[in-house]
Amino acid sequence: MSCFWRTSDLAVLLIWGVFVAESSCINGNQTAQNSPSPLPEVNTIVSVQMGTKALLCCPDVSLTKAVLITWEIILRNQPSCRISYRVETKETNETNCTDRRITWDSTPDQSPDLQISAVALDHDGHYSCQIATSDGHFQERRDLQVLVPPEVTLSPGKSRTAVCEATAGKPAAQISWTPDGDCKTMNESHSNGTVTVRSTCQWDQSNVSAVFCFVSHLTGNQTLSIELIGGDKALRSYIPYVIPCTIIIIVLIITGCIWLLKISGFRKCKWTRPGASTVVEEDDMQPYASYTEKSNPLYDTVTKVEEACSMPQGEVNGTDWLALSATGI
Known about the structure:
With 329 residues, the chain is of the alpha+beta class. It has helices at 2-25, 232-295, 297-310, 318-326; strands spanning 42-49, 54-56, 66-75, 81-86, 91-95, 102-104, 114-116, 125-133, 136-147, 151-156, 161-169, 174-178, 182-189, 195-202, 210-216, 222-227.
């Protein structure tokens, strides 16, 4: 019985050790199937989300037997990069390697694994590790695929339509709707390898008031919902905006009328003032006219002559004729 428990404990320790070794090379959303063997090479697809750390492993070979460790990196639109480490001399060489984000995980004599500190879109490519030993050559190739989560939006359209868009995702996202409608989906590819997926749907059924957009992607799934706008519901949606605008317009009209009445009344008062001033001017001139009439002797003489001429000759007294004769008439 004691041997059974010891055997079981040993099996658990072995499983735990393999899990730790695998998990150290599988980071985040990476997936790998490692099976170290001599040539031919083993290909592994590794998917890593952009912005995370990636750890790429070499074949599981004892470093005590290793003679030369070489990493060959082929990135998109870039020359091939080669990093090598010679165990005997502990010499490291790099050729055409300019990206400082790609480094050894630790020191090559302790671990031949390679790490990328922050994965970017331009890290898409092939990473091949070769280990030369006294028993032969071992090689493992990893195809790194960078995942980019899309930006998902859902917006209403006209006539009971909705638009669901997954922008700049890598790879392209998948869009589905609930309930089903009359949908059209378009994909737009970008130069950096990302894809924008746009799905437009229309629902003619009047009993459909809300719809759901499901976006599936390797980085995670998202679900958005929205209420459809159309018919009487669309008209009711504008009522909260129409009523305040109507009130504001009425207030402006009333204010404008009051302002016009005030302006017209002011002008009327201003126009009646010149007539009053004319009367005052005539009154002001009256004393001057009286003064002129009293102080002009010629005017007095003419007046007396006119009066004398208008009277019968027999009624003119001597005093008046003497006065006329004295004036020389």
